[in-house]
């Protein structure tokens, strides 16, 4: 089995597009792309992005793990494989790994004709009423919540009831082959307790001020990862939605969420670029100290990266800003 897995990864690597990140030469970033807030993007930009996401579900898988899977599914699969056991969460690599992952996704969208940059959902602005955010628009957005009345999804999942992704059918659930309709299970609000829907107060102003108050990386990244990051996942995914399991990239909103996480980190870096651009400290899950030479695994979806190449969004192999 190990040999077959290595063969699969080797085949996938051969199938990588010629413009993949690691194939680019490091060069000066003179014209960085600007990543936009979805709420402020034009209708044409939103439609182009949505069309490209749908296109990913028509492209063959690079990993070829399952006969059902597509390039769209590869992202959920990789995330699950690297989450159990934990290799990309609960340790310093969380932020640079997901920065690379979002860029790999953006590159995949480009292969489907999208010419813009990754976009983000500013959940810190929508925390008091997340369900009213522009990202959930049924035409130029990601659709809304899942519904018990939505048909044909099997037990334990709530099929998204509207929007352009209603008919997306991810292959994996919690890392296992389990084809199903895209699902969401928004956590309701509890006004009597002062709790907004989707756990909104866990990414409101007070929490964001606390996250940004940390001046050292080894305190900043866990504060950002636990809450607000974790709260957004749980608030959208609930118990029966794709954003909760380890295969959370099944839901296209994952990438707008993690682009926002990246933006929060980028802003933190910009407050003191001389000290923070390459600030990367803390203890890894294997008990070793984190270093800028730590590897960013992609298991064949894209070449392995190195942390130091993804710390500066206008250096290394990246070229974007917010």
From TrEMBL:
Alphabetical UniProt keywords: Copper, Metal-binding, Signal
Species assigned in the record: Schizothecium vesticola
Signal among keywords: yes
UniProt keyword annotation of Metal-binding present: yes
GO molecular function: metal ion binding; oxidoreductase activity
Domain Tyrosinase copper-binding: 89-106, 251-262
Protein name stated in the entry: Tyrosinase copper-binding domain-containing protein
Classification of source organism: Eukaryota, Fungi, Dikarya, Ascomycota, Pezizomycotina
UniProt-listed PROSITE patterns: TYROSINASE_1 (PS00497), TYROSINASE_2 (PS00498)
Signal sequence annotation: 1-15
């Amino acid at each position: 089995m190990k040999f077959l897995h290595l063969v699969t990864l080797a085949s996938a690597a051969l199938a990588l597009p010629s413009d993949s990140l690691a194939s680019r030469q490091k060069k000066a970033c003179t014209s960085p792309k600007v990543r936009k807030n979805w709420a402020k993007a034009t209708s044409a930009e939103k439609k182009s992005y949505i069309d490209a996401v749908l296109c990913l579900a028509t492209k063959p898988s690079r990993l070829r793990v399952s006969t059902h899977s597509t390039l769209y599914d590869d992202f959920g699969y990789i995330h699950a494989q690297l989450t159990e056991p934990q290799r990309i969460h609960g340790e310093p690599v969380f932020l640079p790994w997901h920065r690379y992952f979002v860029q790999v996704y953006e590159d995949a969208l480009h292969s489907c004709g999208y010419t813009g940059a990754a976009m983000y959902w500013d959940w810190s602005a929508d925390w008091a009423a997340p369900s009213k955010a522009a990202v959930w628009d049924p035409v130029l957005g990601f659709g809304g919540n899942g519904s018990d009345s939505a048909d044909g999804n099997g037990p334990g999942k709530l099929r998204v009831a509207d929007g352009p992704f209603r008919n997306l059918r991810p292959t994996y659930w919690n890392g296992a082959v389990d084809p199903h309709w895209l699902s969401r299970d928004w956590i309701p609000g509890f006004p009597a307790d002062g709790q907004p829907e989707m756990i909104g107060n866990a990414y409101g102003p007070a929490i964001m001020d606390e996250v940004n108050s940390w001046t050292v990386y080894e305190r900043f990244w866990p504060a950002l990862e636990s809450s607000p990051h974790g709260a957004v996942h749980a608030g959208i995914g609930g118990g029966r939605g794709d954003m909760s399991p380890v295969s959370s990239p099944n839901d296209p909103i994952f990438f707008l969420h993690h682009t926002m996480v990246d933006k929060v980190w980028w802003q933190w870096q910009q407050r003191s670029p001389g000290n923070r651009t390459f600030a990367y400290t803390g203890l890894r899950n294997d008990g070793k100290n984190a270093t800028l030479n730590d590897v960013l695994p992609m298991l064949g979806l894209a070449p392995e990266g190195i942390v130091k190449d993804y710390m500066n969004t206008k250096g290394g192999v990246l070229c974007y800003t917010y």
